[in-house]
Design goal:
With 678 residues, the chain is mainly β. The chain is built from eight helices and 44 strands. Residues 42-63 are annotated as: Disordered.
């Protein structure tokens, strides 16, 4: 086993190498440590990773009461607001729109329908924790909401509806709305929790090889009920990822269809079958979209899950969000066993998947299909599936290899990026979960993670790993790059499916010890160095998203954009850092206007088409508000006609739905523009 010294470079007026923590001038902490953090596990080899050298002083421990405040329901949406930095200045060459998705409603039915709605809930919204029957049992069960932040660059002004001139230069336009999923609308009308299919799993002490990976507080391995199709056991919250591509904005959740949103106002347009590519409305899709930056294509996948064998469906679309012509943009592959996979990555020619070994309790699967009772993670090797993409001449050809087992299953893998080397070797970087606390029930009752001990008992250890595999030669190696606790790994999106040098992630403040996402860290995989910035102990950053700087083509010449939650004040900001100077901390902090929950994944749309003026956004947002209020009565008529059967001379008969769809084709009006590439 080889090992490489992973030296952390820090700066305080000058570059300090191999030195541990210090305070920087602007209320930020940076830290470094001298470590041998990279260990390799090659085929037929096994050895313990070399422990790091004497650890360095670290930032202050996280304020867990402040962190716990990041799991509170958002009771008021943000329609449209122009915000000015309270610290620093927004760069003129930061142009585009940042999107982020995440759970935001933890007390079910807490956003009432419009006042003129025919159906009104019997109980009004209540504060979190007041009525525990309305509280979800895990943050991941919360309904999804989307943040959008448009950076206007040098646009100096635009006129609003009143004709007043609004100065946009150096400012950002904020909006935040819930995704109006079918489940969200159902619960808001009833004013109570309706979907309880995952509650027994969330309260279970999962005594298997996965430990607390199954109910991990930040991103659980068990994400949906195993009953397939459209049903009240499987609640599509659309809360995991926001994707903008081909002028379309989607939100994703593992186990159901994506939802399509208006890119400006964030109003929900409905479930999307991706222009008819997904043939069945009850199909389960993953919560990941992978972009091939070089070919300007986007790929999705879904799995038809069955205990004996599963079918993997891989979809590929061109820059206009049309299915590519080769193989109609779809390949289907049979994989062994129950395929629970939520993430993947792509290279020039392949899609890469990692499938953990699962044991299925046949009786419980047949009776309940509750994940906590029906399946368990095994102490066995996981499989890597290398699938030729729909545009490949060997489209659909799949090769499977075993990953040598090192004592921890490769479950809940979070892919960062993958690429092909000159000899055909596929390299992919991931955040790997390490199971802990097996047999110990996680925190399944609000408030979550109010102490460090509670957080550590319900959250898995994570680390940055690199894997190598060859499509014909098989598994090569897996290397632990860093043992620091990290979350939400990202790269410059222009390097997607291409060789990358830099990885950005949210990092815990306790080094290798499990701690919540708080600071921002950057790995240089060429020089094997790491730089970090940490805010104050009561502040917590989310996923760091790379935003390109207009006119710059270097891999780290742009900016890092992230949300920052202040758990003491219960406010949120957007922080902007220079990607090539992370340790210097934010160059701008912009208030959002409301407190945002911690959230999950997002994206940055850097194109001019995503640089709308404040007036354009405000006008669309007002229209969305009016349409929701005025359209609520008609929407309820449609729902009631399909959900309330009535009797016609004997048997119960449900009349056909008056919805805007083409039932025989599996299409709706909101799919037409996707088919035509409009």
């Amino acid at each position: 086993m080889g090992s490489t010294s992973f030296n952390l470079i820090l700066r305080v007026g000058l570059v300090v190498t191999l030195v541990q923590g210090f305070n920087t001038p602007q209320r930020c902490l940076s830290r470094g440590r001298v470590s041998h953090l990279r260990s390799s596990l090659a085929e037929e080899t096994s050895a313990a990773a070399k422990q790091p050298d004497t650890p360095a002083p670290l930032p202050s421990p996280p304020d867990m009461a402040a962190f716990s405040n990041g799991y509170k329901t958002v009771y008021e949406e943000l329609s449209c607001s122009l915000s000015t930095p309270t610290f620093g200045e927004l760069p003129d060459d930061l142009i585009g729109t940042y999107y982020k998705c995440g759970p935001a409603m933890f007390s079910a039915g807490s956003l009432p329908p419009p006042k003129n709605s025919i159906i009104q809930p019997k109980a009004p919204p209540v504060p979190d924790g007041q009525d525990m029957s309305r509280m979800v049992t895990h943050p991941f069960e919360g309904d999804g909401a989307v943040l959008a932040v448009t950076f206007h660059g040098t646009k100096t002004s635009s006129e609003d509806e009143s004709g007043s001139v609004v100065d946009c230069a150096g400012r950002a336009t904020m909006r935040y709305r819930y995704v109006r999923t079918n489940a969200f609308q159902n619960e808001r009308k009833k004013g109570k929790k309706v979907y309880t299919g995952m509650e027994s799993t969330r309260s279970a002490a999962l005594d298997d090889a996965g430990g607390n990976v199954g109910n991990d507080l930040i991103m659980p391995f068990y994400r949906h009920h195993l009953l397939p199709g459209l049903n009240k056991m499987r609640k599509n919250t659309s809360n995991t990822r926001a994707v903008y591509f081909g002028r379309k904005l989607l939100t994703l959740w593992a186990g159901g269809l994506p939802y399509k949103l208006d890119s400006l106002a964030l109003s929900t347009e409905g479930r999307s079958q991706l222009g008819g590519s997904i043939k069945k409305e009850e199909s389960g899709m993953s919560s990941k979209a992978a972009i091939d930056a070089k070919a300007n294509r986007i790929l999705f996948f879904g799995i038809d899950e069955e205990p004996g064998k599963s079918q993997l469906n891989l979809y590929e679309f061109n820059s206009k969000f049309q299915a590519i012509q080769d193989n109609d943009g779809l390949v289907q592959v049979t994989i062994p066993g129950l395929g629970l996979m939520y993430d993947f990555a792509v290279t020039d020619n392949y899609a890469v998947f990692v499938q953990p070994a699962l044991k299925v309790n046949g009786m419980q699967y047949m009776i309940s299909k509750e994940p906590g009772k029906s399946i368990s993670l095994e102490n066995e090797s996981s499989m890597i599936h290398i699938v030729a993409r729909p545009g490949n001449r060997n489209a659909g050809k799949a090769t499977t290899f075993q990953i040598p087992y090192d004592g921890n299953p490769e479950s809940n893998i979070e892919f960062i990026n993958s690429y092909e080397e000159d000899d055909g070797t596929i390299v992919f970087d991931v955040i790997r979960y390490i199971s802990t606390n097996s047999g110990v029930a996680g925190s399944n009752q609000w408030p979550w993670a109010s102490s460090l001990g509670s957080y550590q008992s319900s959250t898995s250890k994570r680390a940055l790993w690199r894997y190598k595999v060859h499509p014909s030669r098989g598994f090569i190696s897996k290397d632990r790059v860093s043992n620091d606790q990290i979350y939400f790994g990202t790269i410059n999106s222009k390097q997607s499916a291409q060789k990358h040098r830099f990885v950005y992630a949210s990092a815990g403040s306790l080094g290798e010890e499990v701690a919540p996402p708080q600071g921002i860290t950057k790995f240089d995989l060429e020089t094997m160095t790491q730089t970090s910035w940490f805010p104050q102990s009561h502040e917590f950053c989310g996923e760091p998203m790379y935003a390109e700087r207009q006119g710059d083509d270097t891999e780290d010449g742009g900016y890092i954009v992230s949300t920052l939650f202040n758990g003491q004040a219960e406010t949120s900001e957007i922080v902007v850092l220079r990607a090539n100077d992370i340790e210097a901390g934010p160059i701008a902090r912009v208030p959002v206007g409301i407190a945002l929950p911690h959230g999950c994944h997002g994206c940055f749309a850097p194109t001019d088409e995503a640089n709308w003026t404040y007036e354009e956004i405000e006008r669309r947002a007002r229209l969305a508000d009016k349409m929701e209020a005025r359209g609520s009565m008609w929407n309820e008529v449609k729902v009631s006609m399909t959900e309330c059967p009535f009797t016609l001379s004997g048997p119960v008969f449900s009349p056909p739905s008056f919805q805007s769809d083409f039932s025989s084709l599996g299409l709706r009006f909101d799919d037409i523009e996707e088919i035509l590439g409009l």
